[in-house]
């Protein structure tokens, strides 16, 4: 017996998804998260609201999925076992993501909105921050096991050091970064962590 396709089953067309993703990013840049609406995204993408809801149940889910999928995850940076090289690669990946258009305009607004919306803050932490922290945690754990970092290294604090240095300069201060910025961040983090190798 031939099984028929379910009536009304959604077939997600890649070209429609691509148009929606572009529309979400453009709306975030122009309007910000608070003023972004499903109606506005659908209109810009020349599609229907139903097309959006077939993919994501809420605005928050849609925005975070777009940012998580298109962003450059730290997990894509391969570990080599060389602490300085690996830490520098992680720092470079994060800085590149924050500097790239349209993220340089979107991330500050999204973080500000998260201060007012606990559910959004939790979702950002889970969807965007968690993969990057997991990668840094793996780097730190490997360095401890090799003896490159002290055995009493505060793993949670270690994960924060690199991100804090980059985020403060690029997002909070919005200050320019010099050509040797990533090297200085890396060396500062290694000194702060008491690394035995540089």
UniProtKB/TrEMBL annotation:
Residue ranges for the DNA-binding region feature of this UniProt entry: 37-56
Record SUPFAM superfamilies: Homeodomain-like, Tetracyclin repressor-like, C-terminal domain
PROSITE patterns cross-referenced by the UniProt entry: HTH_TETR_2 (PS50977)
Molecular function as annotated in GO: DNA-binding transcription factor activity; transcription cis-regulatory region binding
Keywords in alphabetical order: DNA-binding, Transcription, Transcription regulation
HTH tetR-type domain span: 14-74
Top-level taxon of origin: Bacteria
Record-linked PANTHER family: HTH-TYPE TRANSCRIPTIONAL REGULATOR RUTR, TETR-FAMILY TRANSCRIPTIONAL REGULATOR
Name the UniProt record assigns to this protein: Transcriptional regulator, TetR family
């Amino acid at each position: 017996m031939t099984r028929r396709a379910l009536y009304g089953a959604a077939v997600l067309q890649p070209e429609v998804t691509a148009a929606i993703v572009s529309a979400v990013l453009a709306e975030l840049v122009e309007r910000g998260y608070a003023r972004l609406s499903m109606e506005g995204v659908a209109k810009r993408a020349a599609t229907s609201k139903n097309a959006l809801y077939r993919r994501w149940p809420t605005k928050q889910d849609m925005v975070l999925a777009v940012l998580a999928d298109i962003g450059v995850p730290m997990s894509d940076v391969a570990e080599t076992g060389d602490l300085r090289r690996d830490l520098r690669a992680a720092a470079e990946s994060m800085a590149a993501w924050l500097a790239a258009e349209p993220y340089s305009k979107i991330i500050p607004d999204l973080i500000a909105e998260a201060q007012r919306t606990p559910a959004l803050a939790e979702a950002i932490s889970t969807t965007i921050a968690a993969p990057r922290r997991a990668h840094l945690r793996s780097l730190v754990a490997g360095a401890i096991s090799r003896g490159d970092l002290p055995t009493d290294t505060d793993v949670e604090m270690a994960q924060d050091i690199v991100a804090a240095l980059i985020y403060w300069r690029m997002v909070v201060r919005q200050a320019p970064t010099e050509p040797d910025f990533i090297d200085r961040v890396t060396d500062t983090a290694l000194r702060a962590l008491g690394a035995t190798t540089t």
